[in-house]
Amino acid sequence: MHHQKISADNPVYEEDENEIKDDQPDSEVAGGELKQWRNSIEQEGDMSFHDQPIYMKKESSATTICQTSVPDLLIELDILYLNPRTNSYCWTEKSRWIIYEEDFDMELRRFNNPHLSTLSVRGLKFFKDLFKDGYANFKCDVRNNIDVLNTYSESVEQSNRFNKDELKEIRNALILNHFHVGMHLSSTIHECPTIHFNEEKQCFETNENYIPHIGRRRNRSSITLNENMHRVQSQKKLSECLPTGSEGALIQVGILPTIERTHSLFMRLDQPVYEDGLLDTYCPLRIIFIIFGPKSREEELLEVGRVFGIMLSNREFREMVYRAESKLDVISASKQFVENSALVHLNRRITHEILVHCLPQLKYYANKSHTEQHQKHLQNIYEEEKRESTTDNKDINIEIGPNFNNKDKASFDVLETQKKEEPSCSKKVVSTVKKFFPPFYQLYIDLKGNKERYLSDFRDGFTKENAPIIFTGIVFAYFVVLSPAITFGALFNKLVSPNMTITMLLVSSGTFQLLYVLINGQPLEIVGVTPTVFIVEQVLASLAISLGIPLELMRFWIGVYLSILGFVFTMFNGAIIVPQFRRSVEEVYNFYYSIIYLLSALFTMFKALPYFYTLYSPAENSTLYINERDKFGIGGTTLFLALLMLNFCLYLVKINRGIYLRHTFRKLLGAFNVPLGIILVTALNYIFFNAFRMPTLSIPDSNKINISMWVNIPDFSKLTSLSTADQGYCFLIGITMFIMLVVEVATNSISVTKVERKLKKKTLYALNMFCLITVFPIISIFLGWPFFSGAMVRSNAHCLSMAKWSANAAPGIPKRIIGHCEQRISGMIVGILVFCSVFLGSILKYIPMASMYGMFLYMGVMGISDMVLWKRLVNLMQRRKHWNEHDYLKGIPLWNIRTLVIIQLFFVIILIIIYVLSQFTTYVWTLFLFPIFVGIYAMIRGYALPRWPRLNTHLSKMDKKHFVKLYDGKKVKSEAEIVQDNQAFDPENNEDSSNSSEEESGIY
After folding, report:
1. pLDDT of residue 194
2. Degrees (nearest 5) of the Cα angle 52, 58, 59?
3. Where are the beta strands (DSSP E) in 516-583?
4. Which residue ranges does UniProt annotate as crossing the membrane (predicted)?
5. What pLDDT score does 225 carry?
């Protein structure tokens, strides 16, 4: 519980040593494990048991609650259970609520899955009648469990409903033990009583030789060490799920066959009582609701206990109960609870599909209810402030400024409205142009921001909280970067230039990753060779052959023009276009490249197959016969192994997103699906297809490393040998690559800085673009390395490995992202490890090329399946009644969805046609049309579609902007400085955790 300062207005707790009594020793708990756990928690600062004020001042409970915020509750429903093995009674846990309801299974000795609580109108009526007829104490001043038992005993005697024998049965039932998870049911029955009832004094008393402990009434010798350890672990796990300052509520329903009437007592304690054993965890007890009744009303009374537990789990009802002064206040709170509930008719055929279709209505009612309550709350605050201001200023009558009457006010409002009219078109153009000036302004403030965050990026990598996450994430991120580097290295060597080897790709990938992490403005990003770069390089190689120009010289001048364009782009603050990126433009771009993944791999594999098979007789020409047979064998086996790897990786993703196996093991399978697929294909190749001599990676052994193969420096003496026409080609290709890189770098940065990632530090977009579009191309052309760009899929995987998840989520609440380890250590180590992978040539040379093609197919399939464009296209093939409830479908007319999907697919098909034509030497010039059509779609989306009245009504919902904000020059705080800004976990407000729900795409 939180301490509060003492004042005349808020006399809640009093820190007087004479009134604070904490004399209950830890030896009350069987074994020493719970004591050690409490001490460790106090040392860690998570919760203090002895520093809390145990007793409150004797004031009105309503006054106390009004001046404090209503805490969260652990609600437990215990029933009187007859153990069939021992024929003895004990209190056993039936249900509990933290956020959702959990029912305890006595046979399995575990709680079932958390679920949304349901109650009946009949149960509400039973509760209302029983609560009216029962006893309630809203100012209960008790110090321990003995006082609680005596209070209930007094209420039973005052009711005059039970005879002497029935009273004795109830008193004996009250002192029975409470069974919880981790305790053996047979050992809960007491062997030596510690609490007994004194009939002369008519109250409960304690024996001098025993500890007054209602929760563990058993002999110390009957307790084993393993049982205690299990119990302590169960308590600790449950306590960690509770927010700080949580309290407990205990509901006891006892059915005794010897009594004929019903009695209930509600107690709200002025001060919470710490009593281990009553609840499932060591939690201060605030509310107690005890019910005893006959066997004939068992079902009714159990329903009453559930109804009260369900209502207490609601924050609004709990707040009214904490403020209640009488039973009528609680009954009024139950009426308000019913008003904010939805009634579902119990049809005879209730199926899963029927309930799924009720979700939109339930969400609508829930949102409407919360909105109305919020409006009432604001109205109450407004009326209270207005009342206070009227009271404070009733003697003040001072007017400042002109005194307008109603007519003057109306005319004045018109003048103000005219002043606030939207600016003209010319003013808009002028304001837009001003954003590009002064030159290098955005780069300057990004460099300033990078200076502020630079040291903290290194310090945060060595904090106690981040170090374990970084250590485990480095291994995952290493394979994320290594696999594409090997794949693209093999494809570059085969389809672009023999001088571009796997060794060169490993060296360049590691070097660029290390440099980028050291100087960029978002260390979570990963750079590498992407499909965009590979396609341009592949077309560039074909164009160089057709024009008769050396590829190295052509790449050099393209890099020069690309760097110049990037410099001009940075000079005029081009990063301001990043917040203007639309999701639909990004989807068209990524959907196109996912298709290219598939086409590139399929074209390469089918190209290896002969167009026709010629039958030769072995006696005529044995050499031709063997060559034809090997071609078909190698080509068919390559296709088979590639498809096998595709299906294997997809199956691992399905396991990762499913419910099989443990969560940790599923996560490991999803993280290392591509390396596992490569291992599988390599093993099958050498076990079953070794006779075909399948093509493998071309990489030298570890003892035959040639450093000269790491670079491919062009011949600078021939730089001026290109003609004017050739320079024009280079300039056009430079423009094409510039536009592609701008889109890809911006998309990569946006994907890393999504709102649901909850990053604390700003991303410096201008600095990132300056590195990748201006600096890195210069390095690439002088060393002969491929051009590099931001790798969005690899960056997302790196962010996933650095994510911080809510470790202590309440049952039924999925884990969500609460932040990331924003540091530079992991990216630097990954770059160094990838660079050192050149010494693994003796192992990598056994990997068949089929695994690389399979990886391309897998990346293409996964890239398409996770896109909203593809999901909308799949749903359009179904009837609307079969659609699931998603934001990209909910509340949008079918015509609007169909129109936007058709427009997007039209431009995707055009881009694919451009790519296919560019593969032929005659039509290689069509590559220059790529940026033109991307720009045309962006213009149509930005200016034409919003002017379409029928489409404009839902366009902003179908195609939202990214929540991106450029760095504005404010100070960048480190993680240590912003820990206090983290919001407390409030599961009731965590309605949509998808976002924050766990990102496990399973792709690289």
Report:
1. 38
2. 105
3. 527-528
4. 469-492, 556-578, 590-612, 632-653, 665-688, 731-752, 764-785, 825-847, 853-874, 895-917, 923-940
5. 32
Distance between CA atoms of residues 837 and 834, nearest Å: 5
Listed in sequence order, the residues at least 6 apart from 354 whose beta carbon sits closer than 8 Å to its beta carbon are 347
Q: Hey, how many other C-beta atoms are within 10 angstroms of the C-beta on 729?
A: 22
Q: Tell me the HSE value of 83 on the side-chain side, using a 13 A CA sphere.
A: 19
Beta-carbon neighbour count of residue 286 at 10 Å? 24
CB atoms within 10 A of CB 987: 21
- Whether the Cβ atoms of residue 323 and residue 84 lie closer than 8 Å to each other: no
772/231 Cα distance (integer angstroms): 56
Interatomic CA distance for residues 949 and 533, integer angstroms: 39
User: Over the chain, what is the mean pLDDT?
Assistant: 74
> What is the rounded distance in angstroms from the CA atom of residue 999 to the CA atom of residue 87?
51
- Show Cβ contacts of residue 753 under 8 Å, excluding neighbours closer than 6 positions: 522, 759, 763, 964
Phi, psi of 299 (to 5 degrees): -65, -40
The mean-pLDDT minimum among 180-184, 340-344, 785-789, 874-878 falls in 180-184
**Amino acid type, 883:** W
Strand, coil or helix: 810: coil
Q: How many residues does the chain have?
A: 1004
Cα separation, 734 vs 742, whole angstroms: 12
246 has a pLDDT exceeding 60: yes
Distance CA 257, CA 262 (A): 12
* Residue 12 DSSP symbol: -
> Range with the lowest mean pLDDT among 195-199, 324-328, 739-743, 788-792?
195-199
CA distance 181 to 92: 9
Q: Phi/psi at 184 (nearest 5 deg)?
A: -80, 130
752, containing H or E segment: helix 724-752
pLDDT band at 751 (very low <50, low <70, confident <90, very high): confident
364-400 pLDDT, tens digit each: 777 766 666 656 655 666 566 556 555 544 443 433 3
For residue range 938-971, what is the model confidence (pLDDT) as tens digits? 888 888 888 888 888 888 888 877 777 777 766 5
Number of neighbours of residue 150 by Cβ within 10 angstroms: 18
Task: Identify the helix (H) or strand (E) that includes residue 669.
Answer: helix 663-671
Higher pLDDT among residues 787 and 60, named by residue = 787
Taking each continuous run of H as one helix and of E as one strand, the counts in the chain are 33, 15
Tokens 């978002």 identify what position?
Answer: 522
Copy the structure tokens of residue 644.
């096998």
Reduced to 3 states (helix: H, G, I; strand: E, B; else coil), residue 178 is strand
Beta bridge partners of 805: 817
Give the residue, 209 or 533, on which the prediction is more confident.
Answer: 533
pLDDT digits (tens, 9 = 90+) for 606-644: 877 765 555 444 444 444 444 666 777 788 888 899 999
CA distances from 979 to 14, 299, 959, 974, 984 (A): 30, 49, 34, 9, 11
Please report how the helices 298-312 and 327-339 are oriented relative to each other, as an axis angle in degrees rounded to 10.
Answer: 80
Distance CA 802, CA 759 (A): 11
Q: What is the DSSP string of 216-262?
A: --S-GGG--HHHHHHHHHHHHHHHHHSPTT-EEEEEEEEE-TT--S-
513: nearest Cα among 826, 270, 263, 227: 826
| CA of residue 909 relative to chain centroid, distance | 34
Alpha helices in 919-961 (DSSP H): 929-939, 949-958
Report how far residue 153's alpha carbon sits from residue 645's, in angstroms, rounded to the nearest whole number. 72
Q: What is the pLDDT of residues 49-108, one digit of tens each?
A: 333 332 233 334 444 444 456 888 889 999 988 877 777 888 888 898 888 888 888 777
Measured distance between the N- and C-terminal CA atoms of the chain, rounded to whole angstroms: 45
Architecture of the 68-340 domain: 3-Layer(aba) Sandwich (3.40)
Alpha carbon distance 195, 182 (integer Å):
24
